[in-house]
């Protein structure tokens, strides 16, 4: 069994990781993954099928708080990274502290950028960068009824 720490990449290691895997198709997706649910797992599995290596960008705790507000994240970044890394589809996890994953995308230079289809083409951070380099952007349909926000609301009720 692979230790989750073996799947963690630091931001500074992204460019070196890309260089070592130049001949492989690297897929990147990102999110907060505060409560991992079926919708997340389905997107990650679909993303993995688009290439050889799936790298998941994970918002840091501070980044999640800025984006989602007080009381979030529910789980800390190390715990969220651990759960993501335990998934078979996920090859590497990188935590980023900014509000967007653009700097991680720029350092990694992925061949495929994946986001949920709820994001419009113009809303996908890094799409232009990936496409300008000859890569592609894939919008994956989301499973209806599965979102972290809706799960939190259900629990609160």
Features:
8 helices, 157 residues, Rossmann fold, alpha/beta, globular
Structure in words:
With 157 residues, the chain is of the alpha/beta class. The protein has a single domain (4-113), classed as HUPs (Rossmann fold, 3-Layer(aba) Sandwich). 39% of the residues lie in helices and 19% in strands. The protein has eight helices and six strands, in the order αβαβαβααβαβαβα. The protein has helices at residues 4-7, 14-20, 38-48, 61-68, 77-86, 102-108, 127-132, 148-156, and strands at 8-9, 26-31, 53-59, 92-96, 112-116, 136-140. It has a six-stranded parallel β-sheet, sandwiched between helices. Helix 7 links the parallel strand 5 (112-116) and strand 6. The chain is globular. The N and C termini lie far apart (38 Å). The model has no long low-confidence stretch (mean pLDDT 91).
The major beta sheet can be summarized as:
6 strands, parallel
The DSSP helix count reads 8
- How much of the residues is beta strand, in percent? 15-25%
Task: Identify the overall geometry.
Answer: globular
Helix content: 25-40%
How do the helices and strands follow one another from N- to C-terminus? HEHEHEHHEHEHEH
CATH architecture: 3-Layer(aba) Sandwich
**Would you identify the CATH H-level superfamily?**
HUPs
Annotated CATH topology: Rossmann fold
Q: Low-confidence stretches at least 5 residues in length (pLDDT < 50)?
A: none
Q: Any chance you could write out the topology, listing elements then pairs?
A:
Layout (H helix, E strand, L loop, with lengths): L3 H4 E2 L4 H7 L5 E6 L6 H11 L4 E7 L1 H8 L8 H10 L5 E5 L5 H7 L3 E5 L10 H6 L3 E5 L7 H9 L1
């Amino acid at each position: 069994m692979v230790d989750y720490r073996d799947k963690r990449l630091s931001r500074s290691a992204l460019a070196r990781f890309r260089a070592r895997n130049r001949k492989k198709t690297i897929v990147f997706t990102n999110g907060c993954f505060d409560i991992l649910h079926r919708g997340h797992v389905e997107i990650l599995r679909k993303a993995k099928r688009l290439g050889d290596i799936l790298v998941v960008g994970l918002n840091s705790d501070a980044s999640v708080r800025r984006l989602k507000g007080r009381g979030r994240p529910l789980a800390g970044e190390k715990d969220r990274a651990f759960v993501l890394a335990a998934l078979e589809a996920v090859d590497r996890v990188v935590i980023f502290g900014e509000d967007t994953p653009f700097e991680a995308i720029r350092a990694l230079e992925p061949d495929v950028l994946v986001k949920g289809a709820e994001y419009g083409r113009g809303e996908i951070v890094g799409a232009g960068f990936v496409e300008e380099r000859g890569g592609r952007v894939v919008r994956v349909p989301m499973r209806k009824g599965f979102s972290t926000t809706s799960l939190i609301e259900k629990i609160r009720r």
